[in-house]
Design goal:
By secondary structure, the chain is an alpha/beta fold. The protein has 2 domains: 172 residues, Response regulator (Rossmann fold); 128 residues, no CATH class. 56% of the residues lie in helices and 10% in strands. The protein contains 12 helices and 8 strands. The strands form 2 sheets. Strands 2-1-3-4-5 form a 5-stranded parallel sheet, with helices on both faces. Helix 9 runs antiparallel to helix 10. The longest helix is centred in the middle third of the chain and has 39 residues.
Length: 316
């Protein structure tokens, strides 16, 4: 793999959070010695959060258990454009205990990469090079925004990928970065991501409605139905917020009705009125058509069936 030229490393701004002071000092001094002169290190998450609000970093290296907050929540907030100005900053997460739950949370947060401690400077430098030359495009689903980790042969073509700005790459190639231009690109890409998210929400709603219908009609009611209903209410509310100012405002009334219906059911999931339950499917059908007017009904039904099949396989 090619490496970032020494002469171009000095302008790359890195935020580095690590709770163990000896590890933080050693690694920071080592990468500075390799030419990455602009490294700001932190022992607590609040410092990283503050820096994100006031600075324009090109890379974040973050301890998964940095004190003072939740690193995974911060990364997810970053990807959702709720922390800092640029939601597409590359993020490498380090962790000391690589248990399944911790790794799963990191992957789901939208981080680009993870390294298990103790790590060597060579490992870290190699991962930085990978983010410069081979960073993955982003993918957007109903509950995830971040690098596309799907196997190339198993990718769902209905979920497109999005190329995002990468100031790390620009600076690594010696380009002068104009942050006004970067922010303009970020704004345009966020519009695209928001539209993708709305479409994926429409599929998620249809998927959840199917699970609710099947769970309620089973001889023994599925104990997960209340969770499905709560999730339906949450997705509908997020959809309603994202509709504002989008090109899909024509489905706003349908969305409001879905929010109100799902909220009523969520308040009394075991005693919901039959008319509200009966309203869910026609509402979800109308929403998915409203967000996907160019798709055939059979194609949309096939995708929802695929989601149900995958869910059943994961639940076994």
């Amino acid at each position: 793999m090619p490496t970032v030229a020494q002469k171009n490393r000095a302008n790359i701004k890195i935020l580095y959070g690590e709770r163990q002071s000896n590890v933080r000092t050693t690694l920071r001094n080592t990468i500075i010695g390799e030419g990455y002169k602009s490294v700001e290190d932190f022992s607590e998450l609040k410092g990283v959060e503050t820096a994100l609000r006031s600075e324009q970093p090109d890379l974040i290296i973050l301890d998964s258990a940095l004190p003072g907050g939740d690193s995974c929540n911060l990364i997810q907030s970053l990807r959702y454009n709720r922390a800092g100005e640029n939601p597409f900053i590359p993020v490498i997460v380090t962790l000391w205990n690589a248990d399944k739950e911790s790794v799963g949370r990191i992957v789901s947060s939208g981080a680009d990469d993870l390294l298990v401690n103790p790590i060597s400077p060579a490992q870290l430098l190699g991962r930085i090079d990978a983010l410069v030359f081979n960073r993955k495009p982003f993918v957007v689903t109903s509950d995830y925004i971040g690098p596309d980790r799907r196997d190339e042969n198993a990718r769902d073509e209905n979920i497109p990928v999005v190329d995002v700005p990468n100031t790390l790459r620009q600076k690594a190639f010696g380009e002068n970065v104009n942050y006004d231009e970067v922010m303009s690109i970020v704004k345009d890409v966020m519009v695209t991501i928001n539209e993708h998210r709305l479409k994926r929400h429409s599929y998620q709603i249809a998927f959840l409605v199917r699970l609710i219908d099947e769970g309620l009609s089973a001889p023994q009611k599925d104990a997960s139905v209340p969770d499905f209903i709560r999730r339906l209410s949450d997705v509908a509310r997020d959809m309603g917020e994202r509709l504002i100012g989008s090109r899909y405002e024509h489905v706003n009334d349908l969305c409001i009705t879905m929010i109100e219906t799902a909220s009523r059911i969520a308040m009394r999931p075991t005693e919901a009125e039959a008319k509200d339950i009966a309203l869910l499917k026609p509402l979800s059908d109308a929403l998915i058509v409203g967000f996907n007017p160019d798709k055939q009904s059979a194609d949309m039904a096939s995708e929802i069936n695929g989601m149900l099949t995958n869910f059943a396989a994961r639940s076994r």
